[in-house]
Amino acid sequence: MNVMAQNRRRNWKQLQATSMTHAMELCVHHAQHVLNRSVEQLAELMGEASHNTLYKWLATGRMPAVQIRAFEHACGINYVTRYLAHSDEHLLVRMPLGRKPEHRELNELNVAANTAINELFKFYEGEVEAGQTISALTALIEDLAHQRGNVEKFRQPELLGGDA
Q1: How far apart are CA 79 and CA 24, in angstroms?
Q2: Which of 44, 75, 133, 153 could form a disulfide with 98 if both were Cys (CB 3.0 to 4.6 A apart)?
Q3: Alpha helices in 76-129 (DSSP H)
């Protein structure tokens, strides 16, 4: 399997950033491998006059807060927002709309649960680092909380948004 196919198959939702620069790098990698966007295109979509500004922010990890949403929107994923919440010991739960999940989503949830339990076994056996286990558990907890909200709102769903 070639590198591009591996990156498309990569479970981007399960990845967790370990620093602000790592979060920004993950966003750029997602944009490049999934959306086929260059840093220059990202800067243009963000309304930046020069792509050099974005390169500077990527190198230092110091992006103005007002640019984070535009950056994540251009990249198609929100690693910076997630890193900021997780680094302050908060979980992020996507807004549940009360819609029935697709089978694929439930299968992904099942895989995430099995992965997290496996990571716990490995951690307590001394085979993996705490950070890897915490990432798997965090992703699972957030996904479960989202599904809990969907179940809670199922009988009275909200209007389905663009990112349902």
Answers
A1: 7
A2: 153
A3: 79-87, 103-124
0.85 exceeded by pTM? no
Is residue 105 within 8 Å of 92, Cβ to Cβ? no
DSSP-derived secondary structure letter, 163:
T
Tokens standing for 6?
């591996």
The amino acid at residue 133 is T
Q: Which of 154, 119, 150, 122 is nearest to 137 (CA)?
A: 119
DSSP character for 18?
S
Are 142 and 91 in contact by the 8 Å Cβ rule? The answer is: yes
User: Tens of pLDDT along 93-135?
Assistant: 888 888 888 898 899 899 999 999 999 999 999 999 998 899 8
Phi, psi of 113 (to 5 degrees): -65, -45
